[in-house]
Amino acid sequence: MLNIDAIHLREINLPLAHPFETSFGITTSRRILLIELESEGLTAWGECVAGEHPYFSDETIDTAWIITESELAPRLLEAHVERGGDCPNIFRQVRGHRMAKAALENAVWDLEAQVRRVSLAELLGGTRDVIPCGVSIGIQPSPDHLMDKIATELAAGYQRIKLKCKPGWDVSIFEAVRDRWPDITLSCDANSAYRMKDLENIVDWDRFNLLMIEQPLWYDDFYFHSMLQKRLLTSICLDESIRNRRDALAAIDMESCRIINIKVGRVGGFSEAVAVHNAAEERGIPVWCGGMLETGIGRSHNIALASLPNFSLPGDVSASSRYWAQDIIEPQVTVSAKGEIAVPTTIGRGFEVQRDRVESLTVRRQTLHAKARVTA
Ligand code: OSB
Ligand code: MG
């Protein structure tokens, strides 16, 4: 039994070390909802990956805050909780709001790992000692800026370069990058910036030998992606479209994609992330772990998840220093010269939260307490 005594919500504000531009906008600073669970002297953490605006997904930090405070946290405090895997059922009545649910559920798994005295990776079923790392490089002010960034990341050892793209920042960029680096593992991510009128343009990208094209079409689509995939040699990878295991099954059976990006926040927590992973594995579809510009808390959860066996492609989980002047965990997440992150084997998530730092970055807070328990 996991007796949760209190749930603390807090918002921290943290500037990114470098602005991050996608087809849907530029992020220069993050407003992040952190969850802290208190349970019989233990502290567990969760991070909500919803952004400030409803651009990547329909959730935002503000919707997540309200739903957590008014619906999810009260349910969790009243429930009989044995394990992290109980959370989907506890939250079942609330539709959607998967990023809000994930922040709480992942904190419960973090707590469960501490109570069982195992690493979070082990609790999730992880088998890897190290995870292979790639980087996601945002749209840059100029092609020269992009070339410099790629050179830096390759020198650091990253195994795969993913370029954010959009109409006007695509073919000419791929050409320039392939001219200079004909053999690197390269992919692109459109974040739904294209439509079927662009089909012939996208088919032409086959000549760049990309590992995958991530979410080229609508954020909620399977059918048109399957039409596009039929015309392409390059694999499509779905990100935004995959909300749960059933979506993964639909996408795989319709041949809308040949690769899946798993983001634990996007699918509603570790239980569903493992379910998507397993469904893909049974059908021979490789997965990789996506990122959402997380602090070290969400990042450490991503590392544990990415240690599962079917995370066979390099993910977007990279070093703390690529995002933050100083991360809020200790040690910071670092990547080896081979482009790998070591999966912690110590109890729990394996990185300490810098509590004083978090305290000083906090701009809003709210605490919910459990009702006094009756002990026999
Ligand atoms: O589509 O993968 C995406 C960041 C914010 C929103 C969506 C995406 C991303 C990234 C960055 O690609 C991944 C990372 O480095 O955390
Ligand atoms: Mg993506």
From TrEMBL:
One family name in Pfam for this protein: MR_MLE_N
Domain Mandelate racemase/muconate lactonizing enzyme C-terminal: 143-237
Molecular functions per Gene Ontology: metal ion binding; O-succinylbenzoate synthase activity; racemase and epimerase activity
Keywords (A to Z) from UniProt: Lyase, Magnesium, Metal-binding
Entry EC number(s): 4.2.1.113
Entry's Gene Ontology BP terms: menaquinone biosynthetic process
Coiled coil: none
Cofactor(s) annotated in UniProt: a divalent metal cation
Name used for this protein in its record: o-succinylbenzoate synthase
Organism encoding this protein: Tunturiibacter lichenicola
Higher taxonomy: Bacteria, Pseudomonadati, Acidobacteriota, Terriglobia, Terriglobales
